[in-house]
Amino acid sequence: MSLIGRSINVALALLICVSVAGTAGATLFYQESVEELDTENSQLRERNEQLRQDLQETRSDLQETRQRLRELNESLQTTRSDVGQVSENLEETEGQLESTEEELASTRQNLRSAQQRVEELQGEVNTLESRNSQLRSEVGNLESANRNLREERNRLQADVDDLNDEVSQLESEVNDLESQVERRDDQIQQLRRENDRLRSDLEAVCRQVEDPPSECP
Known about the structure:
Elements lengths: L1 H207 L9
């Protein structure tokens, strides 16, 4: 009986301990649950505030997006108008391109003709260069002949100068002789006049004499 009594007491003591421990554990669990709920509640408030901010930003982004959409619609209308203008410009450009291609073909033909002409002119240039070399050789020969002729001319000029000096001297002598001739002519004329005067006097005297001498004419 004592053993059973002690066992019962031990069991009761254990039951009491378990009850006390369970109550304490329940209290502790409740406190932890309350703290967790407070923490979650705080987190939910913060999350809710963040969601409000996100919602506000989303509304602002939506407003901006709608504004951007309106601008894009306006740009689309403008772009459609620009596309029409670009199409017209494209058609005009295609026409200009065709004209340019025709001009290019004509230019290429002119280029081929010009290249052919260049080849012909190059042949003429080669011929002219050969002729130029020949003429240079002839010019060298002519210059040599010209130098010889200049030397001959200088010699002849010296002879001419000598002859001119001699001619000048002879002209001076001729002038002196002409002066002498003129003086002699003057003397002859004077003597002739004197002779004529004397003949006239003789004839006058002879006419006055009845029996003129033989000296009378």
